[in-house]
Design a protein that fits this description.
single chain; 271 residues; alpha+beta; Copper Amine Oxidase, Chain A, domain 1; Arc Repressor Mutant, subunit A; 2 domains; 5-stranded antiparallel beta sheet; 4-stranded mixed beta sheet; 16 strands; 26% strand
Length: 271
C-alpha cells in the first residue's frame, strides 16, 4: 500500500509540475520483464529509431524494493545498489553517478516520464531485445545496476578531458561540448596520435589552451558532464579528428585536407 501511494504521489507531482506535447505512440507493443508481461501504463513511442517507454513500471519489475520520489525537478529512484535520476527534457540520465546519453532528451507525456528503453536497461544492468514478429520488447535482469561513476571514470582522463572541453567549447551547446571531447577520444584511439587523453591534449601545436594555460581553468559543471558522457560513449562528431572555428580559420589545414563531418555550433569537424 505504501509503495502504491508513493507511485501515485510521484505521478501526481509530475502531472502538476510538467506540461508537454502529446507524442504519437506505438500500439500493440508488449513489454516483458523476466518472462512476465507488464503493464507499462503507456504505449511505447519511437523517435529517431529509439523506443521510449515509461520508466517506472520497468524499474519496479526489475527492482521490487525500489522507491521513487519527485525532488530537485526530477524523478529520483533508489534501490539496493541503485540511485537513478531522470530529469524531464535532459539529454542524459544518471545511474549511480554514470551519465548516459539521451540524444533526443527525456520525454514527458501527461504523468509519464519516457526514456529510451535501451538506455534505461543499461542503467539498470538489464538486457533488452526486440522481436519484430510479435512486437515484443523483452527485458531480462542482468548482474545488477551499472557500476558507479567513481569506479568507472578514470579520474585523470576526466580531469583533463573536462578542462579541454571547457577551454575549447565552454560557450557551446552540450552537443558541441561532446563533439570536442569526441575529437580527443578519437585521437586516443587512432594510431596517428598519442594513446592517452593527457598526451593527446598536450601534443605540441595541437590544442591552443594547452600551450596558453587556459586549460587549467576550473571547468563548468556542463563541461564535466559532457566529459562523462563522452567517456560513457556519447558521440556527436562521429570519427572526427579535428575541429576548427571557420570564422577564425576560414582556410584551415583541416578544411583543405580532411573529410568534412559536421558543423555543431561554432565548430566544424573533420576526419
Amino acid at each position: 500500500m505504501k509503495k502504491r501511494a508513493l507511485r501515485a504521489f510521484v505521478c501526481l507531482a509530475i502531472c502538476f509540475t510538467l506540461a508537454g506535447p502529446a507524442y504519437a505512440t506505438e500500439s500493440g507493443v508488449t513489454v516483458t520483464v523476466n518472462g512476465t508481461a507488464i503493464e507499462t501504463g503507456f504505449a511505447s513511442q519511437v523517435l529517431n529509431n529509439q523506443t521510449y517507454v515509461s520508466y517506472l513500471p520497468i524499474v519496479s519489475a526489475l527492482y521490487p524494493d525500489a522507491t521513487a520520489v519527485w525532488a530537485n525537478n526530477q524523478a529520483e529512484v533508489t534501490a539496493p545498489g541503485l540511485k537513478l535520476c531522470i530529469k524531464p527534457e535532459a539529454k542524459y540520465i544518471v545511474a549511480n553517478g554514470r551519465y548516459l546519453y539521451v540524444p533526443d532528451g527525456v520525454k514527458v507525456d501527461g504523468a509519464h516520464i519516457l526514456v529510451p528503453v535501451r538506455t534505461l536497461c543499461q542503467a539498470l544492468g538489464a538486457t533488452v531485445t526486440w522481436d519484430d514478429a510479435t512486437s515484443t520488447i523483452t527485458i531480462a535482469a542482468g548482474s545488477g545496476p551499472s557500476a558507479s561513476g567513481d569506479s568507472f571514470y578514470n579520474s585523470t582522463d576526466l580531469y583533463w578531458l573536462s578542462r579541454i572541453i571547457y577551454a575549447e567549447s565552454g560557450n557551446q551547446s552540450l552537443e558541441g561540448k561532446i563533439a570536442v571531447g569526441n575529437v580527443v577520444l578519437n585521437r586516443v584511439a587512432s594510431s596517428l596520435f598519442p594513446n592517452s587523453v593527457y598526451d593527446v591534449i598536450f601534443q605540441r601545436n595541437q590544442f591552443t589552451p594547452a600551450s596558453s594555460g587556459s586549460i587549467n581553468r576550473e571547468p563548468s559543471e556542463d563541461a564535466v558532464i559532457a566529459a562523462k558522457l563522452c567517456l560513457d560513449g556519447a558521440n556527436t562528431a562521429d570519427n572526427a579528428l579535428y575541429f576548427v572555428n571557420p570564422k577564425v580559420s576560414p582556410n584551415s589545414w583541416a578544411s583543405r585536407n580532411c573529410t568534412y563531418v559536421a558543423t555543431i555550433g561554432a565548430h566544424a569537424f573533420f576526419a
